[in-house]
Specification:
Layout (H helix, E strand, L loop, with lengths): L1 H16 L4 H26 L6 H13 L3 H10 L1 H12 L7 H37 L7
Length: 143
C-alpha cells in the first residue's frame, strides 16, 4: 500500500510541477489501477481463508475499503465464512428439548446467540464506519 500511496502522490505532484509527460503519467495511473486491483484481490482472498483471525480480517477489510472498493469490503464482511462458521457452531450447540425446562433453556440459548451475533456485527460495523468517516475527512469522493 505504501508503494501505491507513493505513486499516487507522484501523480498529484505532477499536476503542479509537470515533471512527467502526459503518456508517462497515463502509464503511471494505469499501473496504479492494476496494482490496486491486484492488492484488493489478494486481500479479498486472504479474508476467505478459514485460518484468518478476526484482527487480520478487520485489517484486510479496512484496507480493501481504503483502496477504493468499499462495496466489496462490505460484502466480504457480511459473507465471511469465519463469522458464518462461528454462528453455525453456536446454532449446533443448541438442542431443543421436549421438556418445558429444556425448552426455556433452548430459547434462552438461542436469544443469547442472536443478540451476541448482533452485538459483534454492530461493533465491527461501528469500527468500519469510524474508519470510513476518518478516511473521508477532506475528501470530496465520499460525498
Amino acid at each position: 500500500m505504501a508503494a501505491l500511496d507513493e505513486g499516487e502522490q507522484l501523480a498529484k505532484e505532477n499536476k503542479s510541477k509537470h515533471t512527467l509527460s502526459p503518456p508517462t503519467l497515463l502509464k503511471l495511473k494505469n499501473a496504479l489501477t492494476v496494482l490496486r486491483q491486484k492488492l484488493v484481490d489478494q486481500l479479498a482472498e486472504a479474508t476467505s481463508q478459514p485460518f484468518t483471525r478476526d484482527a487480520e480480517l478487520r485489517s484486510d477489510i479496512l484496507a480493501i475499503k481504503k483502496l477504493g472498493d468499499g462495496p466489496r469490503a462490505h460484502t466480504l464482511l457480511l459473507l465471511n465464512s469465519h463469522h458464518q462458521q462461528a454462528l453455525q457452531r453456536g446454532m449446533q450447540s443448541l438442542h431443543p428439548s421436549s421438556t418445558s425446562h429444556g425448552g426455556s433453556a433452548f430459547s434462552s440459548g438461542l436469544s443469547q446467540l442472536v443478540f451476541s451475533t448482533i452485538a459483534q456485527t454492530e461493533a465491527f460495523a461501528l469500527l468500519f464506519l469510524k474508519s470510513f468517516i476518518s478516511s473521508c475527512r477532506g475528501s470530496k469522493s465520499c460525498y
